[in-house]
Predict the structure.
Amino acid sequence: MKLLVTGGAGFIGSHFIRYWLKRHPEDEITNLDLLTYAGNLENLKDVQDNKNYKFVKGDICDRDFVFDLVRDADLVVHFAAESHVDRSIIDPSAFIRTNVLGTQTLLDAVKEFGKRIHHVSTDEVFGALKPEDPAFDENTPYDPRSPYSASKAASDHLVRAYYHTYGIKMTISNCSNNYGSYMFPEKMLPLFISNLMEGKKVPVYGDGQQVRDWIHVLDHARGIDFVLQKGKIGETYCLGGNSELANLDVTKTLLKLMDKDESSIEFVKDRPGHDRRYAIDFSKAKNELGWEPEMKFEDGLKEMIDWYKQNQDWVERCKSGEYQKYYNKQYGS
Ligand code: NAD
Ligand code: TYD
């Protein structure tokens, strides 16, 4: 089988490609990625010479280019996106372009050539939960509240609209917060780890009582594999990590694992419109696909910290250039 993976040079896409080449060595993968600030071919160094792997640089909004690649594939696995909420608050434009128009361009190509697409989405499309609310599942109404989640919600709606209107072959997964190696250091966990490695404080937004459900990135990659092998066309699957934690508790665990104390915490101004709680009920994926997350949060976090310690040069290269300007604007230098 020939897979076209979009956004494969990013955090989750690169793990998915490495996972897939190992599990399905007979398959061929083309990785289409624009190499924005978040895309990094270093993430795939260990597979770059695999004869079944090919990289092409390009934009998912570039229609002719996308049509040529989709024509040649059996299956599209769509990760490419602008993915950071804080950046979407500063400027939503790139989020609308890539996440909405880019997805529509891929859908047009999928429709034209009768291919299958799996759309990788987020639990953030469902909005924010109160402490007493049940976790999100596939029947939770959409209520996105940041420009990022609104753009992802729009893309999910388009994928379903193309299924109902044109009969395209599609599946969607809505996953909770991922963590693991190769995660760009603008997101909370790698930012905090890299700050602590440099002896800096960690900026906790607001009161730190916002809750996220953390899933190891390889559990997510395996979940997508299960959807691709066993999922039903037209269906959505919620994938979660069974690991609901408040940001402050995550921070305290991190401090403990990195031999730091709470004087390293700095409470900073809250994110505007900050969603209070996300949580996923993954019963459908468990009952229908036989998937459930395997990694325990503290074990995965230890592994992640070790990787960042051993790959400080990777972190430094991510932080040079454009990211430095973003960081200074967001947190002060
Ligand atoms: P990321 O920001 O690390 O990577 C995104 C990749 O997409 C980068 O390699 C970038 O170069 C590429 N890209 C951006 N715009 C492009 C364009 N116009 N054309 C081609 N390539 C482009 O993101 P991630 O964290 O790996 O997330 C991957 C997907 O998973 C996204 O769709 C995201 O919404 C979804 N998701 C992420 C999380 C999470 O916790 N990170 C959770 C659930 C779902
Ligand atoms: P993030 O990694 O940006 O993921 P998302 O917003 O998609 O959930 O943030 C995870 C949580 O950490 C979120 O509640 C915001 C919070 N956060 C901080 O407290 N400080 C920070 O510097 C960042 C980047 C995030």
Remarks:
- The chain has a mean pLDDT of 98.
- The longest strand covers residues 116-122.
- The chain has twelve helices and twelve strands.
